[in-house]
Write a structure and sequence with these properties.
The structure is a single chain. With 89 residues, this protein is α+β, with helices and mostly antiparallel strands. 34% of the residues lie in helices and 19% in strands. The protein has three helices and two strands. Strand 1, helix 1 and strand 2 form a beta-alpha-beta unit. It starts with 17 loop residues before the first strand and ends with a helix.
């Protein structure tokens, strides 16, 4: 296999050839309507689309309140809008 780099919205894959389309910790940065159209184009019958993301860390109870203040109030206003897709699952 030869590695290929391409935007998720414009994949160099023939129509209806992919049986698995996967992205890990990246889909929140995609132009999702364009990506979904591209996934439909390249997906074979019965293909699987797997979008894997991370979530907000969970800490032991005595650190939870402080972490939530930091995450949501202190740095939260600086997250780019796409981050909301991670936070909302």
């Amino acid at each position: 296999l030869i590695p290929v780099v391409a935007p998720a919205e414009n994949l160099p894959v023939a129509d209806h050839r992919a049986s698995l389309i996967a992205a890990a910790q990246a889909a929140h940065w995609f132009d999702l309507p364009a990506f979904y159209a591209e996934a439909r184009r390249i997906a074979a019958d019965g293909a699987i689309l797997a979008l894997v993301s991370y979530g907000v860390v969970e800490l032991e109870p005595d650190l939870t309140d402080r972490f939530h203040r930091f995450y949501h109030d202190e740095i939260g206003p600086y997250w780019p809008p796409e981050r909301r897709l991670v936070d909302t699952g």
